[in-house]
Adenylosuccinate lyase (Bifidobacterium dolichotidis), 480 residues
Amino acid sequence: MRLTDISPIPALTPLDGRYKSQTAPLVEYLSEPALNRERMRVEVEWMILLANGFEGNGFQPIVDGVEPLTEEEQAYLRAIPETFDDEGIKHHAAHEAITHHDVKAVEYYIDDELDCAAEVLGHETQLSKLKTLVHFACTSEDINNLSYARCIKNAMEQVWLPTVHEITDHLVQKAEAYATLPLLSLTHGQPATPTTLGKEFAVYVYRINRQLRHIEAQEYLGKINGATGTFGAHLAAFPHIDWLAVSREFVENRMGLTWNPLTTQIESHDWQAELYGAVAHTNRILHNLCVDVWMYISRGVFAQVPVKGATGSSTMPHKVNPIRFENAEANFELSCALLDSLSATLVESRWQRDLTDSTTQRNAGSALGYSLLALNNLHGGLQSIHPNEAAMRAELDENWEVLGEPIQTVMRACELAGVEGMEHPYEKVKDLMRGHRISQDDVERFIDSLNFDEQTATRLKVLTPATYVGIAAQLLQYMR
């Protein structure tokens, strides 16, 4: 039995196979049918603008020989993409099988719909005579660049960003819940100045939110200016029209994008490189979070909630593997690899046009799909962990040497104030604490051996690894 004999043919990639349910929300915006539907929206809105004008030209037809479309006719045109279903997909594919050109197939698809207009509306309409208006003065890239921009914009705003916000909201909850929960820090893998678990979560919230502000302010550029960006065909047909104003109106007010007035045949894709760079940066921050949490689990700071019936190891029944975080790591890496490639290749085009971007842009869905899959895994992983407070206390109690920092710093302050016997504070504390474990008694004896005043000595003796966390909890106010 050949797998290719199965109908439908099994998915080649895990995004459309094993993980299909998790990446399905992006199908609405970044699949091939979604792109073709958006192309239809661009085409019919261009027809409506050309026929009905806009405020800047007094709502007069932009092209001669066309009557303004009625509300009913406009609704009919706008229904073409909205009713693009499985039969429509097959219909478009039939045209493309002949044209070998997906945008031309969209044009013919709309032509077919115009042929049916009178029958569907139940009366004569000029729509059946407006095939010439479809794709008027356009090059395929006029349609494609606007369609891709709208698809990607919607995917980001409707799927990717809300998913990241869910994670940041969850991290905020954890940060606030554990704001004062002391945690032994490790710098260079060695015990260091304690922090709080909440403050460490807040660090990630702050980092992620900075990137989200960049992404939410991202421009999505579009152009509609002809074969090489000169409006040559437009002016040849209607030299009296202010095509710059028409183009700007269409891109900004009809398509909801930022108008790019200066392009070759293609929109230059710089906005895509900017966006993908910011998404990749966010991926890498979240990848760092996955690695940190994985290591916290490994050292016992976090305990995992077992999933009933799930197998952690095929041979070791006791294990609860941090698989969600490991899956998230891998998928963030795949997403970044694709996003980096997109960012690097899309900003280049030979002279006025080459087609390298055509096949490259089709992978935007995969790039964001792997990121979405990673986000879902990370979110699930974060929901399955909770602090192991007993283990955290034990770590702190075993590392009194971390109080060497405050003691030697207070000694420095005393030396500056002229207190005798406080010289070489760093070296004295190092001799006591470096390279071996010490106890609370050792710390107190060392404090007593020095010429501290009673108030300072008492203040230092009150310190423990669990209370030496500075203003960690107060810092949470800056994470949003």
Remarks:
- The domain at 400-464 is CATH 1.10.40.30 (Ribonucleotide Reductase Protein R1; domain 1).
- Residues 103 and 127 are 20 Å apart (CA to CA).
